[in-house]
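User: Structure please.
Assistant: Input sequence and predicted structure:
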Amino acid sequence: MTEFVRVRAFLVVGASALALSHATSSWAAASDAGSSAATSVGEIVVTAQKRAENIQDVPIAISALSGAIIEQRGVRSVDDLQNEIPGFKFGEFAGAGNLSIRGVGTAFVSGAGQSSVAMYVDGVYLSQPKSFGMVQSDLADIEVLRGPQGTLYGRNSTGGVVAFTTARPTSTLSGGASVEGGAYSEVKGSAYISGPLGDRFRGRLYLEGEHHDGYVLNDFTGQRLMDLTGFGGRLSLDADWSSAWTTELRVSTRHEDGANVVLDGFDPRFAIVPAPYNDFDPYRVNSPVHYAGLKTDTLASLKNDIRLGGDVDLVSITGFNHFGAHQLYDTLGDTLIPFPLGSMTHADTFTQELDLKGSTKVLKWIAGFYFFDDVQNNHSSSDETSVAGAGYHIAIGSPATSVLQLTNQHSREQSESVFGDVTYEVVRGTRLFAGARVTLDRLSQGLSSLTSVFGTIVPGGCTAASNPQSVSSTAVTGRVGAQQDFTKHSMGYVQYSRGYKSPGFSQSTCNDPYKAETVDAVEAGYKSRWFDGKLTLDAAAFYYDYGNFQLEQATLTGIPVINAPKSHVYGLELSAVYRPIEVLRFDASLEFLNARYDQFISQDPNMGVPVGTNLHGVQLDNAPDVSANLGAEFDQALGSIGSLTWRAEASLTESYHLREFNVPWAIQPGYELYNFYVTYHAPSGHWQLRGFVKNATNVTRLAGVLGFGGALGVFQPPRTYGAEASVKF
């Protein structure tokens, strides 16, 4: 299957390239210069360097989706970005979202630490991987930066940045609504109204609600799992206090109710229990446990932009995020050994960033300060005596005689950093850039745990003598590089950058510290536009020296975080967008990747991997050697009755690991995934109908793997489909 996908990816991408090349010579001759504005695909403006720039002028590997593309392609979740972004992988495992870019990315299901790929909404960092996907709706654009970001972004990241910007209030009255129905009894609706609130104020109110049944069935109880009932909204207010001072306020909230944590034995070659207690179906479990889940997220941001004169601006971004989650599920998913686990997470995060930036004809600069304060509480307990009909009560305390495992954790993490970055044009078309960031991180954690078996306490739990646990770390990160314009529409860059992720303590095992994670990266890139902007061709080659990669290891008594001392990542990305005529568009990306452990001795007896196993040469997680995304889009005119937009997408990938061990049950086989969309646009432009099929061939994809004497996994959604009607005024 791996070789098949490799060959298929080369054939499809190669055929697409030949078709594009032929189309270029045919259509370019027939197109005049006057059509270039309408068909240009390189005029996307991004703020990756904290200033508005054309995406093709930024010396960073970056992908961006506009609000129109987000709406038309139905990008509703972080999972959808996998079909749009080169080298991007996402999987939701044990309630936490794991983002990965170019093979770099870890989200800790136990709640310890931060994600290796940082996520921002309106400039505010989201510290909780469990909240990924909760408040990213009603969007203006999405930017994904690939590679370590250790200069301009508040929380250093070793893998990259995903930045969401929400829709702004409008200066004229506007509004809209949509309703959608689809697979698994899905019903979803949203509405917004936007407009002026006086001479200096503008507002936007967005509301949403949705419900769908679960795509996983519990055969024992008949309960549908991975279901969702959610509702939320956002209030946005903009104010122009003067010609030199503007304010933007955003307050979002989201509530989700559903049994959204499922672990199930999926591989009979490495089974915890045999059939009929487990049928090894990816979308069925057989457990007497009643699953449940509840998540809430509230996010507020306040941005003040003060123009000081002389092209100098002072920007302040203040953020607050409250997240809470309660979850109950069976850790084994079978009837022979039901093992219900309840978990609770509460987190409050405050951030403050100050940016002072300016520019002259040859110099662009920014200096700033960032503060991060995160207070988190985690509680988990397992109780075999409460099974059928069990509720949240086991997640917040049960009689000691029935508790098998109980963990209470409280932590506070603070980070302060100062940073600066400059770009200087030495001569026309030649620019040098450099930046640095100095970060001080502090973590203090209190942890108590006990394990009992039928009322007998098992030694080894955390005690008062082992608390509190604390660590501090100082890091210097940054970048240095050069950029050269070859022509008016092409440029190249080369840079060195360093990314860093803070050290910490495991949150389910006692006195178990882990080291800071670092990535030293060298990258060379080329960006170009051809044929009056109709064709965009980009390429990036990179090499990472990856130190102390942080990853979790599942054991019977907890999930400690460990470090892989040394790894490497190198690869090549190629991407193209071609719009030969106004009604036709192609897009393609291809990534070659080699991501391997160089020095790593580890073990996981629960996964069948003995103590002292040498993992040298094993592939990093979510890092296929070859992957490709392809898309084709066509606008079909229907005369006086409107138009249709047809789009087809293909995502092809070779096999990749979900765990660091080279065992078959920790590997996702290669696959081809197809999505199809059709949108009808009314002649007035005020309403449209959209139909879609995602994962049309019903490919089964693992999102994550654990092991407790057998392979336990969770799978990404199967085939879904639906139709949406929307109206705007």
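The chain has three helices and 44 strands.
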